[in-house]
Design a protein that fits this description.
Number of helices: 6
Strand content: 5-15%
Order of helices and strands: HEEHHHHH
Distance between the termini: 48 Å
Largest sheet: 2 strands, antiparallel
Length: 134
């Protein structure tokens, strides 16, 4: 995980990425308070992350599931390979919406996020030993 990705995760968890002043939302152009709930609905985070709408905070839901050790099952590896770049991208978009003054360049492409954690989750390569024909 890069330091930027870690900072965005921490900002979200502490509520620092929201801006509680009445202002136009750069995403939907509605003048509103940029609360966490507005940002989640405005950016359609539940749909983007394929999380049930019954989960009140899909970002925290995923962050709570971060593995402490590299996943051993193929299914979990595939899950993180799909969900982690999406989560990093949406955190970037949420922060960018609330703090546009921090950003002077366009957002990177969706596939540019989350590479370090994905490398960590990669299963180790087992060296192939050739079979001997006797």
């Amino acid at each position: 995980m890069t330091s930027t990705e870690r900072n965005l995760c921490i900002y979200h968890r502490l509520g620092w990425s929201t801006n509680h002043q009445q202002q136009p939302c750069p995403n939907c152009h509605q003048t509103t308070r940029l609360s966490k709930q507005h940002l989640l609905s405005c950016h359609r985070v539940h749909t983007f992350l394929s999380i049930s709408k019954n989960i009140s905070d899909p970002v925290s839901f995923i962050l709570n599931r971060l593995p402490k050790t590299p996943p051993t099952s193929h299914q979990k590896h595939v899950y993180w390979k799909i969900i982690w770049p999406k989560l990093c991208y949406i955190l970037h978009q949420l922060h960018r919406t609330c703090r546009p003054d921090y950003y002077t360049t366009p957002s990177p492409a969706k596939n540019q996020f989350g590479h370090l954690l994905l490398q960590w989750t990669e299963p180790p390569l087992v060296p192939h030993t050739p079979l001997l024909n006797l």
